Amino acid sequence: MLVDSVDAPTLSADDRHHLTRVLRVRDGDPLTVGDGAGRWRPCRLGAEPEPVERVYEVPEPSPAIGVAFALIKGGRPELVVQKLTELGVDRIVPFTAGRSVVRWDTEKATKNADRLRRVAREAVMQCRRAWLPTIDEVTSFEMVAAGDGVSMADRTGGAVDLSAPLVMVGPEGGWTEDELATDLPRVRLAEPVLRAETAAIAAGVLLSARRAGFG
């Protein structure tokens, strides 16, 4: 479970309910707590988690990898964030592209960003990841493209490369001519044409595999 401090861990009411009512964890049962910033320790459940061992520290992954994805309909943004978190992606950036069908106003963008952060937090606890990913506020294609180390997913591109470890994935309508006119490096995610959410997850898989030395 995620806590504010592994030195003196306390559980939120929601997390305690999930542990005791959903997972059926009982007092005295083993429990692992982490702070989402690389520190974790074994505990056992009681009135509050009772530490039973020292604190362990996991170095921050390097280089940091990220996926920026154009907004998509329904619950698919949550699916993307959940799977990218499980894959170890460090930064997730929702953005609006020229052909995006979905566009969030300021209020909706803030609400949905908070929701995506909750999804990431739940995914971190499920997969026992030591580091929480950063979920950016919704931004524009131009703002993402202006950053450092950015590449664009495109079927004409080459292999994913950690020299450009933030991969932008476009909407299902594809990139506009203006977006394709940027000088960002292109990376190819798969031979077939992928759905937007599949492409975002594929980018996470390839980045994670490259960092781990699998390909």
Total of domains: 2
* Full CATH superfamily name of the largest domain: SPOUT methyltransferase, trefoil knot domain
Structural class by helix and strand composition: alpha/beta
Kindly state the number of beta strands: 11
Kindly state the percentage of residues in helix.
25-40%
**Helix-strand topology string:** HEEEEEHEHEEHEEHEH
CATH architecture descriptor of the largest domain: 3-Layer(aba) Sandwich
Output the radius of gyration. Answer: 19 Å
| Poorly predicted tracts of residues | none
- Can you summarize the main beta sheet? 7 strands, parallel
Quick structural overview:
The protein has helices at residues 13-22, 76-87, 106-127, 141-145, 177-180, 196-212, and strands at 30-34, 39-44, 50-51, 56-57, 66-70, 91-96, 134-135, 139-140, 150-158, 166-169, 186-187. By secondary structure, it is an alpha/beta fold. The chain folds into two domains: 13-57, no CATH class; 66-212, SPOUT methyltransferase, trefoil knot domain (Alpha/beta knot, 3-Layer(aba) Sandwich), CATH 3.40.1280.10.
Q: What does this entry look like structurally?
A:
The chain is α/β, with parallel strands linked by helices and 215 residues long. It folds into 2 domains: 13-57, no CATH class; 66-212, Alpha/beta knot. Helix content is 33%, strand content 21%. It is built from 6 helices and 11 strands. The protein has helices spanning 13-22, 76-87, 106-127, 141-145, 177-180, 196-212, and strands spanning 30-34, 39-44, 50-51, 56-57, 66-70, 91-96, 134-135, 139-140, 150-158, 166-169, 186-187. The strands form 2 sheets. Strands 5, 6, 7, 8, 9, 10 and 11 form a 7-stranded parallel sheet that branches. Helix 2 (76-87) packs parallel to helix 3 and helix 2 (76-87) runs parallel beside helix 6 (196-212). 34% of the residues are buried. The model has no long low-confidence stretch (mean pLDDT 94).
